[in-house]
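Need residues for this backbone.
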């Protein structure tokens, strides 16, 4: 494995103050760390940039009672098992601490407190900017995930100011709410398919007094208006409406009409050296969760390792691909 000092020695600082790395990984969560692990195994230089002040903070900032919906035996990343009883369900903080320990164990070069605000291309290199800082690279791996921009309907601004509104990404515990009724607004497919993921049955919610109501379609007299014509007199609204799958800070023509990156298993079409991991259904249904990020990260790391600085695959990789018959694409 390569150590942090090796990465520093192999980076260069041009006259304009920018730093150069072979690969810049944006995002220090489970996906970014997984890509780093697989690049380190191949002795490739890289740096991981993360906006948080501490590795694992993206988990620490979630709601207080959150537990993973998969047992601990399935929650570890490659190279390091999760340190908990196999059939237990880890808390968010245990997951955060695990990621921090993972980065330390493999001496992954993570720079925290670096929030990207731009990715562009200049000549034969990519440029990642963060305020006044500038990083140049032959390869950029976007591992921050698309769930960064909360999605709330436009009519939310018309609610009476007395109603407390929170997006689910900002909810921590009930102390944030005021006395009175609470409306949770989600899409129908989440109600019918999402409940098993949190190990709560719909009948248990009903027994606890939780009423399922039709879709919220607008506002009447400052209150939520439902599809069936009812107007709810509630004191709190929690928007469980997901996120906009957008990357407004990427200034490159790599997105389709739906705003999603144009890629083949995370390898961006038309921009050699640009990659994504942790996209919804990037390769399989598990691509955006712990069980799948390692598989996708390894595939991306192999692709990076197969490229010369000018972007052409190396001869030995081409020969290996012919011998294997493209077996990497058949991974489950």
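Answer:
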């Amino acid at each position: 494995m390569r150590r942090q000092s090796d990465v520093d020695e192999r980076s260069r600082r041009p006259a304009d103050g920018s730093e150069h790395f072979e690969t810049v990984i944006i995002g220090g969560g489970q996906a970014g760390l997984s890509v780093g692990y697989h690049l380190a195994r191949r002795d490739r230089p890289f740096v991981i940039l993360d906006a948080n002040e501490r590795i694992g903070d993206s988990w620490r900032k979630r709601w207080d009672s959150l537990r993973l919906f998969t047992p601990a035996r399935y929650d570890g990343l490659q190279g390091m098992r999760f340190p908990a009883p196999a059939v237990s369900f880890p808390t968010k903080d245990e997951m955060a601490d695990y990621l921090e320990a993972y980065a330390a164990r493999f001496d992954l070069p993570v720079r925290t407190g670096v929030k990207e605000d731009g990715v562009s291309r200049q000549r034969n290199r990519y440029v990642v900017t963060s305020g006044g800082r500038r990083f140049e690279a032959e390869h950029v791996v976007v591992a921050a995930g698309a769930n960064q921009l909360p999605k709330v309907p436009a009519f939310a601004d018309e609610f009476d100011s007395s109603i407390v509104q929170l997006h689910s990404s900002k909810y921590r515990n009930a102390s944030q709410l005021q006395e009175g009724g609470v409306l949770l607004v989600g899409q129908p497919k989440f109600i019918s398919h999402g409940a098993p993921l949190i190990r709560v049955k719909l009948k248990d919610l009903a027994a606890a007094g939780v009423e399922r109501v039709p879709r919220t379609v607008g506002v009447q007299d400052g209150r939520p208006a439902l599809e069936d014509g009812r107007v709810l007199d509630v004191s709190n609204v929690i928007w469980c409406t997901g996120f906009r799958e957008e990357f407004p800070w990427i200034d490159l023509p790599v997105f389709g009409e739906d705003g999603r990156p144009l890629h083949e298993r995370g390898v961006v079409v038309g921009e050699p050296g640009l990659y994504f991991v942790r996209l919804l259904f990037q390769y399989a249904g598990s691509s955006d969760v712990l069980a799948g990020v390692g598989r996708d990260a390894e595939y991306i790391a192999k692709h990076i390792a197969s490229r010369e600085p000018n972007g052409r695959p190396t001869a030995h990789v081409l020969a290996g691909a012919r011998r294997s018959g493209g077996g990497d694409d058949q991974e489950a």
